[in-house]
Amino acid sequence: MTEKERFFFNAIRLGDLAIVEKELADKPNLIDVIDDRGSSPLILASYYDHIDLTQFLIQAGAPVNFKDASGNTALMGVCFKGVVELAELLIKEGADVNITNVMGTSALIFAAMFNRKDMIELLLENKADKTIQDAKGLTALGHAEMKKASEIIKLLQD
Asked: How far is CA 114 from each of CA 3, 21, 24, 82, 107, rounded to the nearest angstrom?
């Protein structure tokens, strides 16, 4: 990774929209660079809950369904963290709610694993597939049942 790329990713971590805008104006291909951990600029911006920066990167052409080294997307990250506003933005911009990572985990499964009721409601409204099974053979409902999360179980059974 070059120094310019490190600088760019640090600006993303800090949520410095002005620097990110300037760096992309100078070197547009930074939108496609991957950091040392396999994350894209969009995944990193959304992971750090930078909504304005996430919106800017999408408008600048960041691929919304890019998968990191583990097969996770930006939407998956915000689903386990529970940031509904970012999930709404990503879905509005074309994030696929049914993509799975290398372990077969979907955004809905992440939301169930971390007991994110509002996120589950949003994903279901956007046609999340309740039948997807992870590598352990568990659906979102299966994860909710393991945690005895009664509200989540009810949501996923309806």
From this structure: 36, 34, 35, 8, 11
Q: Which DSSP letter does residue 100 get?
A: B
Residue type, 48: Y
Looking up tokens 């290398």, which residue turns up?
Answer: 102
Query: Hey, what CATH topology would domain 72-158 get?
Result: 1.25.40
pLDDT at residue number 127 = 97
Residue 67's CB is within 10 A of a number of other CB atoms, namely: 18
pLDDT tens-place string over residues 78-97: 998 999 999 999 999 999 99
Compute CA distances 88 → 28, 45, 69, 81, 84, whole Å: 26, 15, 24, 14, 6
pLDDT single digits (tens) 119-129: 999 999 999 99
* The CATH number of domain 1-63 is 1.10.1610.10: no
Domain segments of the chain as ranges = 1-63, 72-158
End-to-end Cα separation, the chain, in angstroms:
48
Q: Which of 73, 80, 27, 23 is nearest to 53 (CA)?
A: 23
Spans of the chain below 70 pLDDT: none
Dihedral sign for Cα atoms in the order 7, 9, 15, 16: positive
